[in-house]
Amino acid sequence: MTIPPLVNWAEVIKSVQQVERSRKEFNTPIRTVNRIVTNGGVGRLLLTGLDSSMCREIFYNASRWVLYERVTKGLFSDVPLNYNQKFFVAFFCGCVGSIASNPFDLIRVRQQSSALVRMRTGYGVASEILNSPGANFLALYKGHEINAIRAGCFTAGSFVSYEMTKSYLLKIRGEEDAYSHTLAGMMMGVVGTVMYMPADAVRTAVYNKETKAETGWKEIRKVTQDIYKTGGVRGFWRGSLSAMARTVPACTLFPPMMEQTRCWLGLEYF
């Protein structure tokens, strides 16, 4: 809960860059920051979507970290998994975590995508979605398919790279400590971001479609084709620097905090 307020601004920048993917004035984070601050002040940059982002962290991070450990160290405790197997387990755990967090992801992305024009509250966006003609609670699960892929890619790439980096550092240093957790966390953020960006770009576009618009894989395919037409392959990684400005610091801070807390509680490292 302490991390979202520190890095929320980066998510705002990324979302605006993705929504404005056809406009060159939003090609870089610096230009995007300038436009957001000029239109709405620093507060809009720092606070837009923070309410839903903090709620999302509770459901998403808690579920995938706990589930991954239960599967790898509980279900398969007698049969150590290799990194390929852990990759698929992590992908599954990320998908499960996305189910719990999708309503908050949808609300947050819509809030942040409109930061260039106005600052909206999570409650206001949720009410708008639920009050759309023909909408019900399931409207909050719009885009859950692509959100699951995004979460799976991020969790698989970040968790496996974290464990691989820890293992490598343990071999060359002979000990596991906060230093190795911090370096592994940085690597976790970089690899996870590179892997999730294509799905993230598609997700942002899908989330910003009208609630009553076409949904499911057909819509995802159309959005994917549109992104490729307007930006080519690079279009799927638009906003990557902004994304890393969020995920790398968050991943650098959270794992060491988690690992040290486990140590103080008498538990083994993750």
From TrEMBL:
<keyword id="KW-0813">Transport</keyword>
<keyword id="KW-0812">Transmembrane</keyword>
<dbReference type="GO" id="GO:0016020">
    <property type="term" value="C:membrane"/>
</dbReference>
<keyword id="KW-0472">Membrane</keyword>
<dbReference type="InterPro" id="IPR023395">
    <property type="entry name" value="MCP_dom_sf"/>
</dbReference>
<comment type="similarity">
    <text>Belongs to the mitochondrial carrier (TC 2.A.29) family.</text>
</comment>
<protein>
    <recommendedName>
        <fullName>Mitochondrial carrier protein</fullName>
    </recommendedName>
</protein>
<keyword id="KW-0677">Repeat</keyword>
<feature type="repeat" description="Solcar">
    <location>
        <begin position="85"/>
        <end position="168"/>
    </location>
</feature>
<dbReference type="InterPro" id="IPR050391">
    <property type="entry name" value="Mito_Metabolite_Transporter"/>
</dbReference>
<keyword id="KW-1133">Transmembrane helix</keyword>
<feature type="repeat" description="Solcar">
    <location>
        <begin position="176"/>
        <end position="264"/>
    </location>
</feature>
<dbReference type="Pfam" id="PF00153">
    <property type="entry name" value="Mito_carr"/>
</dbReference>
<dbReference type="InterPro" id="IPR018108">
    <property type="entry name" value="MCP_transmembrane"/>
</dbReference>
